[in-house]
């Protein structure tokens, strides 16, 4: 029975290894609901939440739940979330200007945070769209109908926002809202609402938008632009061509469209360029754009866009582009077919309605650039592997420190999260979090609150708060802390804690020797070749002759090598694919003595488990003990069998 279970376990873990074999690099550590505290709320309605925003108070977030907002307080997860009714002006019964339907309500498809305690949201009832600039500090909250937003509200009414489309509200004396419309039918492209409504020209290409990045120019407001990122269905049906082509497009914020008879209310400043992500040497490239995340910088041209791609072979990659490089293509490249288009301005013009007819005709004809946009410094992907990622989120808040590092969060299509540290073109997968109860619902939104190091995640059914600054979970020694390479954490002399100045950490090299050289670690005091565990107690186990037994070792890092040491001898009996288990097939006098599980990673060794086996005297209570042991092991195995 025991052996059967063990074989089953091996088969199970082997299958697991096979399916994951190509998934290098795997995360160094895995944190499930068991290892790390994760607070959660169920989301009702099974409707993708349009967005999550942080409230003023820490630990409180607001999420859109179909027709209303809900405020979730993670400080007090037992408290029922507070429902916030949206007071749509369009549903005001005492306003004679509104033509009311019996059931006046809108499905919220867009939520954006404005200045402190104000939200901008839009919803649609399939016939029209309503927007509300809501002041949360008022009780009950009201739609403020501010003058600078009124034009957005008026001009968007007849447009139906689709679920999941990127949007950007650009606030000014006269605010504008940019929303995309994806698909193969209708006005596919970027739409602007506000004082001057402008939209895409008619075309028959299938496009799916994944991000909008506004780039305002304080030094030169006329040159303010909005960049859109999308994938386009390839019309070339060739056998070896890709299904999708990734693009970046840009429009000028001051564009008002053409004059009455040509390109009226359509973009005159739009240009498109292909994005390249791949390695020319290995001829490996990625063509399906999946998601983008932006890191804004003080200087507009330094702003970076992290783009997540997939290819048809089930691989994912991340490439990084700067706005500067994108702008260079739009200002310097010829148009597709090496066409020059003299007279067409690459800059934004003050009045687009005065562009000459011949130029407008060229704009209408061809707006695609000949040259492609390549990643920053002509690099390849900063990360690629066989995981199927669906979303990307970037935390750049660590970049203020001397050892500049960026942390990426990538969600896997089964709902898990990879936390990745990046410096230039180097990346390392620090951890995999498994935050959802429903492992088949992937992450829809990410939001980090850097001061508290809490990451908020939503799936269709759950809102989870993940403590990504939980440094204690890496271990209780300096070496564990340094090997984690987590830029959020450092060794303060006694604990692995959230990183501040004067703490030990080496994100780039994971060199644990800094622990010894800094004197922040106790030297090994025994004469043994292997360092002692902190709780230097050996667990005594008595076994009957010829009995079977398993010794267990707590496996933490997937990148460490685990060995069982018996009487200071390195035994080769540890199993390749289940390093945590040591099988004692038949208890005999040779098995007596100390068995220790030692992990080794980048030259750092430590004892993780320490047992002393003894033969039980034949007169002992043989059957009952071995039965009990068998039961314990069975329980442990069943637990680990859930692979
Ligand atoms: C509803 O409309 C009336 C009349 O225009 C106005 O006085 C009132 O403030 C509105 N209520 C809300 C919640 O906007
Ligand atoms: C990757 O995930 C997406 C979204 O969940 C899914 O549609 C696609 O089939 C997955 N691809 C593979 C190769 O598993
Ligand atoms: C980093 O610097 C930016 C601006 O210089 C600031 O807004 C941000 O709060 C800083 N982040 C941290 C973690 O200190
Ligand atoms: C190190 O961090 C731990 C836990 O955060 C704290 O209790 C301890 O006082 C800190 N030690 C020093 C020397 O700052
Ligand atoms: C034990 O031996 C194996 C195989 O020779 C080796 O890879 C491993 O590093 C050794 N472990 C220790 C802790 O010495």
Portion of residues in beta strands equals 25-35%
Helix-strand category: mainly beta
Helix count equals 7
Main sheet properties: 5 strands, mixed
Write the CATH fold name of the domain at 532-639: Immunoglobulin-like
Bound molecules: 2-acetamido-2-deoxy-beta-D-glucopyranose
How would you state the average pLDDT, rounded?
85
At the fourth level of CATH, the homologous superfamily of the domain at 532-639 is Immunoglobulins
Rg for CA atoms = 30 Å
**Strand sequence of the main sheet, in spatial order?**
1-27-26-25-24
Give unreliable regions as ranges: 1-25, 522-528, 619-643
| Net shape | globular
| First-last Cα distance | 20 Å
Which architecture of the domain at 532-639 does the CATH hierarchy give at level 2? Sandwich
Helix content: 10-25%
Number of strands: 39
Broad CATH class of the domain at 532-639: Mainly Beta
Domain Ig-like: 532-614
Protein name: Sema domain-containing protein
Domain Sema: 28-468
Pfam families: PSI (PF01437), Sema (PF01403)
């Amino acid at each position: 029975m025991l052996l059967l279970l063990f074989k089953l376990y091996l088969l199970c873990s082997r299958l697991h290894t096979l399916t994951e074999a190509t998934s290098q690099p795997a995360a160094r550590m895995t944190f499930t609901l068991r290892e790390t505290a994760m607070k959660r709320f169920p989301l009702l309605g099974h409707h993708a939440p349009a967005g999550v925003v942080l409230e003023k108070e820490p630990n409180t977030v607001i999420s859109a739940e179909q027709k209303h907002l809900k405020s979730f307080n993670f400080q007090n997860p037992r408290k029922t979330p507070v429902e916030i009714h949206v007071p749509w002006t369009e549903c005001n019964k005492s306003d004679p200007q509104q033509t009311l339907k019996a059931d006046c309500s809108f499905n919220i498809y867009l939520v954006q945070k404005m200045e402190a305690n104000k939200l901008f949201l839009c919803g649609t009832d399939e016939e029209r769209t309503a927007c509300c600039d809501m002041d949360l500090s008022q009780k009950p909250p009201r739609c403020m109908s501010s003058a600078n937003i009124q034009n957005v509200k008026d001009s968007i009414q007849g447009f139906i926002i689709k679920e999941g489309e990127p949007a950007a509200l650009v606030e000014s004396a006269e605010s504008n809202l940019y929303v995309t419309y994806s698909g193969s039918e209708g006005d596919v492209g970027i739409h602007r609402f506000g004082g001057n409504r402008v939209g895409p020209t008619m075309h028959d290409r299938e496009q799916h938008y994944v991000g909008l990045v506004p780039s305002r120019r304080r030094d030169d407001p006329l040159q303010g632009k909005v960049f859109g990122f999308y994938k386009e269905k390839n019309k070339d049906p060739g056998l070896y061509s890709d299904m999708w082509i990734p693009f970046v497009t840009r429009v000028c914020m001051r564009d008002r469209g053409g004059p009455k008879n040509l390109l009226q209310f359509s973009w005159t400043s739009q240009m498109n360029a292909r994005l390249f992500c791949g390695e020319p040497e290995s001829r490996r490239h990625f063509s399906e754009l999946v998601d983008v995340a932006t890191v804004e910088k003080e200087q507009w041209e330094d702003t970076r866009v992290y783009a997540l791609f997939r290819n048809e072979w089930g691989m994912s990659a991340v490439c990084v582009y700067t706005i500067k490089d994108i702008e260079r293509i739009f200002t310097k490249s010829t148009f597709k077919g090496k066409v020059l288009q003299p007279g067409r301005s690459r800059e934004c013009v003050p009045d687009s309605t005065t562009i000459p007819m011949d130029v407008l005709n060229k704009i209408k004809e061809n707006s695609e650039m000949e040259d492609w946009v390549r990643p920053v410094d002509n690099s390849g992907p900063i990360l690629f592997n066989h995981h199927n990622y669906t979303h990307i989120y970037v935390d750049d808040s660590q970049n203020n420190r001397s050892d500049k590092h960026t942390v990426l969060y990538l969600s896997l299509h089964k709902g898990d999260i990879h936390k990745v540290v990046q410096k230039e073109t180097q990346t390392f997968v620090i951890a995999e979090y498994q935050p959802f109860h429903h492992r088949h619902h992937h992450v829809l939104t990410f939001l980090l609150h850097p001061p508290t190091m809490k990451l908020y995640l939503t799936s269709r059914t759950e809102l989870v708060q993940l403590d990504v600054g939980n440094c204690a979970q890496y271990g209780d020694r300096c070496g564990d802390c340094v090997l984690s390479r987590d830029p959020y954490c450092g060794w303060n002399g006694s604990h692995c804690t959230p990183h501040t100045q004067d703490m030990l950490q080496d994100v780039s090299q994971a060199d644990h020797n800094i622990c010894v050289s800094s004197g922040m670690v106790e030297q090994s005091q025994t004469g043994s070749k292997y360092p002692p565990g902190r709780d230097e107690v050996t667990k005594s186990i008595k076994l009957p002759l010829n009995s079977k037994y398993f010794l267990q070792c707590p496996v933490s890092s997937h990148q460490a090598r685990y060995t069982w040491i018996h009487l200071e001898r390195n035994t080769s009996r540890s199993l390749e694919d289940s390093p945590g288990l040591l099988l004692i097939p038949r208890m005999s006098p040779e098995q007596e003595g100390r068995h220790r599980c030692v992990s080794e990673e980048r030259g750092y060794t430590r004892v993780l488990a320490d047992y002393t086996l003894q033969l039980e005297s034949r007169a002992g209570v043989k059957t009952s003990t071995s039965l009990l042991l068998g039961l314990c092991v069975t329980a442990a195995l069943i637990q680990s069998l859930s692979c």
